């Protein structure tokens, strides 16, 4: 529980004396000044001044993104493969990072290592950014003396998984944003523009078309009950958000429904298969036993339906069943992925075969995202045309009829 609050700790600026008596200064992150002083003493620094940095006048902190973590791991893999020592690599990467928050985190990892801890333990101090999978792989690399190789695999894994997440996010964000904008524009037209035409129609002294009357009635409702509409929309959004955060049953239902949505469901399905294969390949190449690897593999799929299935597969594998048989019995994996895993198990190259499966389905996600974008453009134009164009036609229809009567 204590680790989960790391990102909420304060920043302290300090000055002190090192083992040689030289005056040094810097900044550290911690819950209190006493904690920072203890950490400095562990590093052989005698603290002289430890002062909490003002949130008002201090530099504005930037958020640490998953992309930042992927770049950091790639930089470390490059530095280590070039023969640069671990602590010096962290110093170089930390001091030169564009994001101050990432720099502070890296320097915190460096301080942890200088205190006599392992690199994996240093990463474990920031569980929001380094999950169990990354920490376990780095730990395996340190213990086996192949840290450079494992860091390269971890960096590649992070880059691939982040790339596929961005593609899925792009596929979800674009249509959602356009539809929201369309409804906002429609609301503005109903609230501000339609009433102007309504005043004009009152001077006609003639019956209005049914379509126009319907739009005017909708406009009156929006003007009178706009607060109710906002409350319902906001309440629904908040309720769905809380259900997704608190209820595992709701998340499972949501993930199951999303997998059945045309095109979008295919993207989510194939991205889950790609994540499963990529994570399994990385873990197996690192020498992690298959049963132990299945838990982080399940979490990495990003879909509760797949997660539950993989956890059941883990129990079956632990009894001695082959992985490809458990995949067949789960009923959620495509035949191609199952057959490739079977070949990998028979030939002793499961990591390589899983990597090929991941490459294939990542390419499939690429194609599906491009297809979805091309399909959505005419659909979005149709939605905008019906909403906005319908309002325009409804407002000008009485004027057209009046012109015909004259």
UniProtKB/TrEMBL annotation:
It is found in: Cell inner membrane. PROSITE patterns: T2SP_F (PS00874). One of its GO terms (biological process) is protein secretion by the type II secretion system. It is a multi-pass membrane protein. InterPro entries: GspF/PilC (IPR003004), T2SS_GspF/T4SS_PilC_CS (IPR001992), T2SS_GspF_dom (IPR018076), T2SS_GspF_sf (IPR042094). Signal peptide: none annotated. The chain crosses the membrane at residues 172-194, 226-244, 380-400. It comes from the Bacteria. This is Type II secretion system protein F (GspF).
